[in-house]
Write a structure and sequence with these properties.
about 400 residues, alpha/beta, seven-stranded mixed sheet, five-stranded mixed sheet, 14 strands, binds pyridoxal-5'-phosphate
Length: about 400
């Protein structure tokens, strides 16, 4: 057991550092120890001291769960082995015959999970443009039980009005889920905007260092929390203690990382908007971005993901991806190092040919923490390659 100060009413950064953790009363260790035990001594038959068996709960996971739930403003938090494991637990709340509405450019893995794992077992779904406030009405069916929001979307960074969609969906009795991976609770808190459940790939900004795969579900709803807790234990897609420790370590610096990464992204957007090789830049900071006003309202900043299309189409997009030296050509996002990728052939290859297919002229950047001038120099020389090749 640790000596945990009550920080629940204190600021975001304070909770990021202290919520769920505290100096160990035995050793004085100031970080939550990584607790590897799989089973825990009981004081008598059926009288555990708090933990029984590590899949059901352990000190490392409990510490992370309390911390991230606090950052999302939720009473309950559940850590999973990956973002998709967290999403799977949420989708298992539904029954065969139920209908779920998803954004039409949701993360490819979410689409695959719904279309190839849950649909064959009887779940029905439609993908719609949730940026359009009337899309929900058109897609609604008597069997609609869940509305899935991802905002900003991946990879086009479109912005969905969480409060508007959540209000409409709640009034019809559906569960509202928000994938908050791209924004993080530092930029956007969906539970405050009306969502029932927040899901995360903690692999991204929350872990923040490209060294841990994880997922999370947060909620304020006691009944949903009970159902997710049951699934977490019954299905068992739980993270190990070291993974929990790494995600929680990432959370401690989330605010400062996000602040700087968002600032670096603005400088990148500025460069892209002025370069001859670029056809269009997708970032909510741009005043001509259709979601700019909503982003201003529901987010603290505009995020550090930036997508852009190339005048030279797919060959130019691939040339840029292969010409950067600091931006590493790799999937994933949200960590300290800047990444570049070609969504149509990489992260979104699984949705090629579907209604969620991504333009082959598109490049996606995850802007990291390197010196911003170095990032700009690197991008400029890569874009110049694309112009020269035309
Ligand atoms: C928005 C979003 N949600 C969920 C996931 C899935 O997370 P994981 O890879 O941790 O399973 C990803 C992964 O890229 C993602 O980008």
């Amino acid at each position: 057991m640790t000596d945990r100060p009550d920080v629940s009413s204190l600021g975001f950064e304070t909770r990021a550092v202290h919520a769920g953790s505290g100096a160990d009363p035995v050793t004085g260790a100031v970080t939550t120890p990584i607790s590897l035990a799989t089973t825990f001594k009981q004081d008598g038959v059926g009288r555990p001291r708090g933990y029984e068996y590590a899949r059901s709960g352990n000190p490392s996971r409990a510490s992370l769960e309390a911390n991230l739930a606090s950052l999302e403003g939720g009473a309950h938090g559940f850590a999973f082995a990956s973002g998709l494991a967290a999403e799977d637990a949420v989708l298992r709340l539904l029954a065969p015959g139920d209908h779920v509405i998803l954004p039409n450019d949701t993360y490819g893995g979410t689409y695959r999970l719904v279309a190839r794992v849950h649909q064959p077992k009887g779940l029905d779904f439609d993908t719609v443009d949730l940026v359009d406030p009337h899309a929900l009405d058109r897609a609604w069916r008597p069997a609609t039980r869940m509305v899935w929001i991802e905002t900003p979307t991946n990879p086009y960074l479109r912005v969905i009005d969480v409060r508007a969609v959540a209000t409409a969906a709640r009034s019809r009795g559906a569960i509202v889920v928000v994938d908050n991976t791209f924004a993080t609770p530092w930029l956007q808190r969906p539970l405050e905007l009306g969502a029932h459940l927040v899901v995360h790939s903690t692999t991204k900004y929350l872990g923040g260092h490209s060294d841990v795969v994880g997922g999370f579900v947060a909620t304020d709803d006691d009944q949903l929390a009970e159902a997710v807790a049951f699934l977490q234990n019954a299905v068992g897609a739980v993270p190990g203690p070291l993974d929990c420790y790494l995600v929680q370590r990432g959370l401690k610096t989330l605010a400062v990382r996000m602040e700087r990464q968002c600032a670096n992204a603005l400088a990148v957007v500025d460069l892209l908007c002025g370069h001859a090789a670029v056809a269009q830049v997708f970032h909510p900071s741009l005043v001509n971005h259709p979601g700019h006003a909503v982003a201003r309202r529901q987010m603290r900043g505009f995020g550090a993901m930036v997508s852009f299309s190339l005048r030279g189409g797919e060959p130019a997009a691939i040339a840029v991806c292969e010409a950067t030296r600091l931006f590493t050509l790799a999937e994933s996002l949200g960590a300290v190092e800047s990444l570049i990728e070609h969504p149509a052939r990489m992260t979104h290859a699984s949705v090629a040919g579907s209604s969620n297919a991504v333009g082959t002229d598109l490049v996606r950047l995850s802007v990291g923490l390197e010196t911003v001038a170095d990032l700009l120099d690197d991008l400029r020389q890569a874009l110049d390659v694309a112009v020269a090749d035309r």
